[in-house]
Design a protein that fits this description.
six-stranded mixed sheet, binds adenosine-5'-triphosphate, three-stranded antiparallel sheet, 9 strands, binds magnesium ion, alpha/beta, 249 residues, 2 domains, Rossmann fold
């Protein structure tokens, strides 16, 4: 069953085209990674798909129940505690305070935030904690579709793995689908069913590859070999490394 469908989607900022002819379908419980060089329009595409930005042209159909969004930056309210930030979408939905508290705590636990961190304001949280607060806020609404825009970049290796496993498990158990932007090809290979590569100038999706095996069942060695294969033998991925190097520089 298709839960998200984009057809002929394009966008221009102030007359400058950044996305064009984007066609994309996602099935229930499918994790699709979206990769492409910096500035090629990945965040723009995510915002359009999530309904946060009106595309200049094209059609979008959403057949999921409820989505969550984890943005590229944490985007927390500075005057609210971590707990209040996580519960914010529930407050907007009119959920009562007792249930808000319970669900915010459960979401915080999933992203390994300690109870004492929940009373802190964003300024008193580390970068990784802020991002985890934002991830918990994306999950608190019990979504069946989640948009992730490079969500784990600020996390250390162990936490990153834990968060990836959380996405994989949730997709399997709760049948949640995800559109997952990442610069990290190993991350894409580890957690996705399918990888889409956006054209460097955002002009369409350059190509896609299914990842062998199923998310959660690939060993580290398998992930390593698939990534090596993509990078050394598959022309579709030839520009992925340029981006990583540019980012580090
Ligand atoms: N609000 C805006 N107004 C004008 N131009 C914008 C705006 N937001 C993004 N752009 C431009 O659109 C292009 C695509 O930006 P976008 O943020 O979607 O890229 P991205 O692929 O997510 O990049 P990154 O990997 O660095 O996050 C860039 O050239 C950017 O400068
Ligand atoms: Mg981006």
């Amino acid at each position: 069953m298709t839960v998200l469908s984009l057809q002929g989607v394009g966008h221009a900022y102030l007359g400058r085209t950044v996305l064009d002819r984007i066609a994309l379908d996602l099935s229930a419980a499918e994790i699709v990674a979206l990769v492409g060089p910096s500035g090629c329009g990945k965040s723009t595409l995510v915002h359009i798909a999530a309904g946060l930005l009106e595309p200049t042209h094209g059609r979008i159909r959403r057949d999921y129940r409820r989505h969550g969004v984890v943005f590229q930056e944490p985007r927390l309210l500075p005057w609210a505690t971590a707990r209040e930030n996580i519960a914010f979408p529930l407050r907007l939905a009119g959920v009562g305070s007792g249930e808000r508290r319970r669900r915010a705590e459960a979401a915080a636990m999933r992203v390994a935030l300690a109870p004492e961190d929940l009373e802190k304001y964003p300024v008193a949280l580390s970068g990784g904690m802020r991002q985890r607060t934002a991830i918990a806020r994306g999950l608190v609404v019990d979504p069946d579709f989640v948009y992730f825009d490079e969500p784990f970049t600020a996390l250390d290796v162990a936490l990153k793995r834990r968060m990836q496993d959380l996405v994989i498990d949730a997709a399997r158990r709760e049948r949640f689908a995800a559109l997952f932007v990442t610069h990290d090809l190993s991350e894409a290979v580890r957690l996705a069913h399918r990888i889409l590569v956006l054209d460097a100038d955002g002009l369409g999706i350059e190509g896609e590859r299914s990842v062998p095996g199923a998310p959660g069942e690939r060993s580290d060695t398998q992930v390593f070999h698939v990534v090596q294969g993509f990078l050394s033998e598959d022309p579709l991925f030839r520009r992925i490394h340029d981006v990583d190097e540019r980012r580090v520089a």
